[in-house]
Amino acid sequence: MDKVTIENVSLYYDSCQALKNVTMTVKKNEILGVIGPANSGKSSLLRAIDRLYEIDYARMTGTIMLDGKNIHKLSINDLRRRVGLIFATPVVLPGTIYKNISYGPKLHNRISKEKLDDIVVNALKAANLWDEVENRLKDSASTLSGGQQQRLCIARALAMEPEVIMMDEPCSGLDPISTAKIEATMLDLKEQYTFILVTNNTKQAARVADRTAFFLAGELIEIDKTEKIFTSPSRAKTDEYIRGKFG
Amino acid sequence: MMTVITVVILFFIIVYVFKNGLGQLSIEFLTEKTRDMGKEGGILPSILGTLFVTVVAIIIATPFGVGSAVYLVEYTRGGLMRRIISFGADCLAGVPSIIFGLFGFIFFVITLGLGWSVLSGGLTLAVMIIPTIIRTTEEAIKSVPRSYREISYSLGGGKLDTILKVVLPTALPGILTGVILGIGRAVGETAAVIFTAGSSLGIPTSVFSSTRTLAVHFYILAREGISMPKAYGTATVLIVIILAVNFVAYRLMHRFIARYY
Question: Does the interface ipTM go beyond 0.85?
Fold first, then answer.
């Protein structure tokens, strides 16, 4: 079943075109890897789905649908509640660990303290961070290590109970152990969520993604089962990129 | 070298004023009414006058200043409007305070009929310190990382949520700095209040009472040769208040930063 449908989407930043006529789908409960060199439009794709491009005053053409509904017909709050985005560099908001995670849920609903506590605990558990911060919820979030901060960001997104989680190079600044933990988290959560994983690390896509899309200069070159992309891609450019000939 | 000279000059001024003024200080000086035009008695009315005028100024100037800065940074995208407002604020900051005094006298005191009062003085000072608050708040808001805003948006926060719950709390230390600078200017200001708050020696009982701030009191004592010792005493109190305001504000700020960052 298609969770996200992208049809003929182009995205323009002033004069520069970041996405060129992209058409693709994201299936429910899959991990979709998105690979490609710098400036290939990977992050723009995520910003288009989350309508975050609007705060950059960018312009989009084409349609993106979430569960068959045009995202521009959904309220922006509803869309962003249902679609979580995790950025390349973990950014914790000033304040405690607890406050970071409760920020999102509190924006949308009036929630009792007990319910909020539950949400925070569950989000931290789901993000594999609970054991490490159990006794430190009232500490400033900036006291966490880089890997912990990124898992905090994941927990923060999970606390919104989203349907789609998009990650923009979530492990680019992390050591292999932290990376492994985050990948494990993704595989754990696959049953409940749909993931779009943008990564510069092609091996990471190979490890966790069900399907992989290859972008180049704003164009979708190829999207297929991960195995196929990494063993016998149908386009020459994909093959060259995966074998490290450019990018 | 230059730093040393600056510090030495600062210390020289403070020590000189203190040397002449500390002898005047006593509980009575701080808590008694002024008698005989300032030759005798204390300076309680002026201390209260300064406090009231400054509080009125800050209460009015902070929302205007912070609001303008938020508008400039968050709601205009470069643009002509923003340049005009920024230019206006900069010009306003460069206008000599006596001009503000004159403006306040004509506009607040006469046209609006507020008379020489705490309110007129406070409003005039507010107009004078708004540019300072706009400028510092603008810088503070600009220095809030863009990623904080993106996080808030990506979690479904609206623009207002983002500004109120993420941007302003993060920028608070910077905003406070602006407000403190404003307080410093307001407390020490003479020319802008002498025409607007008046120079009555009574203890102000409402925002419509005329009052005399410390700086004005000091000016009158010295200018009219009423009593130089009392003038130095007043100057000492003024300096102590300004130092104390700065000290307390910085302590609060550091505490705040230590807790949240």
Answer: no
A104 contacts in chain B (CB < 8 Å): 155-157
Tell me, yes or no, whether B104 lies in a domain.
Answer: yes
pLDDT band at B155 (very low <50, low <70, confident <90, very high): confident
pLDDT tens by residue, A148-180: 898 899 899 999 889 999 999 888 877 888 888
Check: CB of residue B115 under 8 Å from CB of residue B210: yes
Distance between A181 CA and the closest CA of chain B, angstroms = 22
Does any domain span residue B113? yes
Please list the residues that pair with A211 across neighbouring strands.
Answer: A32, A225
Q: If we measure between CA atoms, which residue out of A85, A90, A79, A64 comes closest to residue A198?
A: A85
B82-to-B69, B85, B94, B140 alpha-carbon distances in Å? 10, 5, 18, 17
Looking at the domain assignment, is residue B124 inside a domain? yes
B155–A95: do the CB atoms touch at under 8 Å?
A: no
A2-13 and A59-66 strand pairing: antiparallel
Q: Which pLDDT score, from 0 to 100, does residue B261 have?
A: 55
Six token digits for residue A225: 């089962």
Among A94, A95, A104, whose Cβ lies nearest the Cβ of B156? A104
CA B161, distance to chain mean position in Å, is 29
Which is nearest to A53 in space by CA: A40, A70, A66, A41? A41
> Chain B contacts of A93, Cβ < 8 Å?
148, 151-152, 166, 170
Domain tally, chain B: 1
Tell me which residue range forms the domain holding B219: 43-144+171-232
Any idea what the CATH number is for the domain that residue B179 is in? 1.10.3720.10
Interface mutation target, options A107, A138, A158, chain B, most CBs of B under 10 Å: A107
How are beta strands A31-35 and A2-13 bridged, if at all? Answer: unpaired
Say whether domain A2-91+164-242 belongs to CATH 3.40.50.300. Answer: yes
